[in-house]
Amino acid sequence: MKLIVAVVQDKDSSRLSNALVEEDFRATKLASTGGFLRAGSTTFLVGVNDEKVQSVLDIIKNNCQARDQLVAPVSPMGGNADSYVPYPVEVQVGGATVFIMQVEQFNQF
Ligand code: 2BA
């Protein structure tokens, strides 16, 4: 069994959870925050048998889209002046950042 951990943009989270439910996959959604943009995101935990991993990856790929996002300049006040960027910077936020982990044991009580 594998645990798929997928960080997706909030805009895609309803679409993705509907698609997973439709295909009969169980998932847990966690509210999360990106360390760089500090924008809200949704982290999905999906536990599946090994042979279903690719189907879940396909669903994630088909329901999450990459977007360009502007990072507004942040005042150095109270922060680190070394990292201050005085102009907006555009970064591409991925459709989904996905980690796949081996599950040692799975119990439901
Ligand atoms: P954030 O950390 O808020 O990053 C948002 C986007 O900003 C990233 O998109 C990337 O394009 C850019 N970015 C991040 N760190 C950067 C840096 N040090 N310098 C320049 N640009 C930077 P994605 O790579 O698609 O990542 C989207 C979100 O997925 C991330 O949000 C983070 O929450 C998660 N993520 C990405 N890689 C991860 C990793 N190795 N471990 C844990 N979470 C990760």
TrEMBL record:
<dbReference type="Pfam" id="PF06153">
    <property type="entry name" value="CdAMP_rec"/>
</dbReference>
<dbReference type="InterPro" id="IPR010375">
    <property type="entry name" value="CdAMP_rec"/>
</dbReference>
<dbReference type="InterPro" id="IPR015867">
    <property type="entry name" value="N-reg_PII/ATP_PRibTrfase_C"/>
</dbReference>
<dbReference type="InterPro" id="IPR011322">
    <property type="entry name" value="N-reg_PII-like_a/b"/>
</dbReference>
<protein>
    <submittedName>
        <fullName>Uncharacterized protein YaaQ</fullName>
    </submittedName>
</protein>
